Amino acid sequence: MKNILLTLSLLVFSFSLFSQDDALNIVVIGAHPDDADVTTGGTAIKFAKLGHNVLFVSVTNGDAGHYAEGGGALAKRRRNEAQEAGKRYGVTYHVMDNHDGELMPDLNVRLDIIRLIRDWNTDVVIGHRPYDYHPDHRNTAILIRDAAFMVIVPNIAPDTPPLKKNPVFLFTQDRFQKPYPFHPDIAVDISDVYEQKIYGVAAHHSQFFEWLPWLSGKLDEVPLEEKAQLEWLGKQRKREITPEIMTALVKWYGEERSKEVTHAEAFEICEYGRMPDDEEIRKLFPMLGK
User: Fold this and answer.
1) What whole-number distance in Å separates Cα of residue 150 and Cα of residue 182?
2) pLDDT (tens digit, 9 = 90+) per residue, 131-140?
3) pTM of the full structure
4) Domain covering 2-284 assigned CATH 1.20.272.10 in the classification
5) Backbone φ and ψ of 55, nearest 5°
């Protein structure tokens, strides 16, 4: 684990176009390879294009997510897909070696996440809300929330230096209504990078052209040719801009600009992290409208 963290630390410096003090360090944590892509892929592309450092983390290795494959062979395939997706986004992709469908929010995994957040010198952590159909998503959300604050406590995981300040922790958008629905505090216009996002998502071929269509009974609908696959996937993954998200877009981009938005990603501030004001949000999300 220490060797992995050292590698990630070096990547922060080699990928940055800014000085150490200017570049933002963003960590997006999903339960499975592809979760970060779906929720935050467009925003990650925008961060990367501006020269900031983005790390995608999958807490499980995805070794159960298929109808015909599984175990180590599937885990290897999904890890390779994640690495390809990272190249397409311009981000670093790290897949942890916990079994898919068996994730528990235990202390050892929490400490690994704390170390990752510290080693990346993270400004913003983005991940699932704890209200979700999938236990791995729920437990990843618990792990992320439990890492908040602890990342600044020196005697927790003392082998990795603590952060000097708690990062801003954000939840990603979901459709679940109970015990309370997602509230978009921040909305990012990704209209101009949506096709690139879909190209990155498509790198997870085992999921979006095999496993998920099989689950929904649409496997026969998946096109065979790559261009047609991308067009099909773009339609499948299009998210509604709800009235609440439109309100957030108007706040950050203005009413006229918001009318032109066709695709957006939204985030809710988690109270367990640092609570940013609007001025800090604009610094942390420099792609937002003026």
Assistant:
1) 25
2) 999 999 999 9
3) 0.92
4) no
5) -115, 120
